[in-house]
Amino acid sequence: METNEKILEVENLHVSFHTYAGEVKAVRGVDFELKRGETLAFVGESGCGKSVTAKSIMRLLKPPVAEIKPESRIICNGRDVMKMTGKELYAFRGDEISMIFQDPMTSLNPTMKVGKQIMESLMLHRNMNKKEAREEAVRMLKMVNIPGAEKRVDNYPHEMSGGMRQRVMIAMALACNPKILIADEPTTALDVTIQAQIMDLMRELKEKMNTAIILVTHDLGVVANFADRIQVMYAGQILERGTAKEIFYESRHPYTWALLSSVPKKGNESKEELYALKGTPPDLILPLNECPFASRCEYCMGICKEQNPMETSITDTHKVSCWLMHPKAPKVKSFYDREGR
Ligand SMILES: Nc1ncnc2c1ncn2[C@@H]1O[C@H](COP(=O)(O)OP(=O)(O)OP(=O)(O)O)[C@@H](O)[C@H]1O
Ligand code: SF4
Ligand SMILES: [Mg+2]
Predict the structure, then answer these.
(1) Mean pLDDT of each 10-residue bin along the chain, 341 residues long
(2) Where is the ABC transporter domain (predicted)?
(3) Is residue 17 within 6 Å of ligand 1 at its C-beta?
(4) Which atom of ligand 1 is found nearest the CA of 281?
(5) For residues 318 and 102, what is the distance between their CA atoms, to the nearest angstrom?
(6) Sequence ranges of the domains in the chain
């Protein structure tokens, strides 16, 4: 159940990596908010800044190579995440917000039984004693539909299948009942059937626990029927944002159209016919004074190469950064006109 209470506000987020080749400006002025119980998806091609944005919210990127620029604001439940000390951050991750990754082995300790790993988190964050924590760990494993949870609690990660480990990671992330769960490509490494099961599980848990979710994915197909709102990212910026309905059925940005073209139509799951976007995203080290999509956009106009477009509001929720939104821009045939969707 979604309410109007904002639990996360991110404003003017800028994140850079200081590398030998120069400063990689990976996230360039990203703004968004998340309400209690809401599901927001970050969608875009590889390298567009989805994970860096997600990790920045939890301050998981390591300085001095990674730098969240001081003008960035990250407010979670009224608290300024940028100002948190190491100790405060430690409590914040788990109590308020937690993250699941594409590869469970990055979060699970291979030398420790899965139950013990969940128990540690419960004893630390929820002050449970050993017996209570074990009972709760079994309950959590049952909640994520692990059969024979009473026995599985004593398994090591390598004794479980990939799908099973992903469930354990979800159980671990939810153990402390965080208000926000960030799921970064949670199903990419899994086969299609297991993918669907994990998405069903996340949907069920979100309803049961009213956890707000940020779902990070390169695949728009995964977010259909899951996200309330979607933000489409490219070269460290948000190019279009809106409700799921606005992004799927009323999108106005050529980059979103390109992503939509690669979602197979119902009844036509053949991969050969998928639209492949030509060209590559811009180099994030070089200055970018034009629309970041200009070099790949078939609608590119003179102005697009001179100035990055401002965001235009179509509705309260639907916003687009593209010169085609300018009242004097030519009317073009949209994705929907062309594909007959
Ligand atoms: N440690 C790092 N050092 C230098 N550059 C980095 C580092 N981590 C990320 N980047 C750069 O930041 C940009 C954004 O990366 P990010 O991981 O957020 O992409 P993503 O959208 O999550 O892509 P993917 O779908 O591949 O996970 C990329 O261009 C990447 O090269
Ligand atoms: S601003 Fe221009 S180049 Fe950028 S997406 Fe719009 S039409 Fe294409
Ligand atoms: Mg990523």
Answers:
(1) 82 98 97 96 94 96 96 96 94 90 82 95 90 94 92 95 89 88 87 83 86 92 90 97 96 95 66 62 91 95 96 98 96 84 64
(2) 8-260
(3) yes
(4) 29
(5) 29
(6) 104-177
